[in-house]
Give the backbone structure.
Amino acid sequence: MYLSEDCGAVYVREKGELRYVSADKNDAPQHRLFTRDFSFQLCIDTLPSASHTKRRDHFIFTYNKEGSLRYTVKSLFDISLQFIADHIEHVDSLVGFPEQMADKLFSAAEERHKFTEPHTAPRALQVFCEAYGELVLKSLCLRNRYLLISERLEEIRQFQSLECLDLYGCRLGDNHEVFKYITSEALASLVKLFIGANCLSDAGLQRLTAPVRVMKKGLESLQILDLSENPITEKGLGYLTCFKMLQKLDLSRTNVTVNVSLKDFFRKKMRMVLSETPLKEFGHSDCNTEGWAEQVINQWEITASEVPKKYSKPRTNALRFYGREKFVRETLNSMSGTSDTTNKDKVVPIHFYTVDLCGTSSTAEHSTHSSTVAAVHKGKKRRLSEEEQSSGPLSKRQSLPALSAEDLDLLNSY
């Protein structure tokens, strides 16, 4: 081999060794990867812990009989499932994805707390609810969980296929944001609604029924409605006539007085009669949370209970100073759950149920309904008492226009 001056360094590999070809061995260039004053430090402790867990997620570590640690690689399906669960908030849609796979994907996302983190929970639930509906959540019981509703309202709005919703004892009032969700088309499939003990007045009942009365949208499939322990009067009952499929109604402990005029209104306008025995549907024994997201709701409640309570004592003192001691006492008692159960047992329940045109009951489990219907027909021949004459017929007093000015204001809010 001939080397000219124009050529650079020439290397030759012989017998697996690389050597420099040059007439003078001292002319071999000295190449260094680092300079002499270069130093480095291996900082293992500063590496993020997430990177280590991701690497170990692909392996299953076990011990053999001899006590040695061995590992096996997970299947490609499990690795892919974990990857999708880690980025479930970025998935565009799961429509058409098999339900068996989606169930495992939901569990994997739940293990990664995708439904409890505020920045990922709404979108993650939306992806599953749009594709699987009632499989994610069919029935939701938030009884006496007022704090949970305020903390997780954005997540609760993603459930679009509920058939039963229990909000009893949440003290929401007339203008809570959750009522916009209840009256939206997302809950058109709702069959059972329990909103007792929510400080709901006639104005709140008007807002609740406005979409059905005016736009024929919302709670059109409602069959069971609980309005107990709300300050509603006979005036607000006229809004309930828009629920054409309503079968059972609870008006216990409200400002409604049971008389012949009230019974006549329900019989003529809504084909309902007063039940002599309490209806089991309003015992809240069958209402619970059902669906894939059942454990998610329980986790929300645990997280909400960990939120520190605000300074209730200074607020109590301030309200007492302004003459609202009674209001504060009642509110704190309701929040602590110390209700007078003895007085509740003494109150006679006011339950109405539907009857067909022949006057027979639509629910076969109540044997006393036939006698109640007979009493109602017999009451038509009676003369009105002085109390009923002074109050006037309820049906005439509650004839509402199809579209009032208040309804127009309500429509503007939706």
DSSP finds 17 helices and eleven strands in the chain. Confidence is low (pLDDT under 50) at residues 49-54, 335-342, 359-401. The radius of gyration is 35 Å.
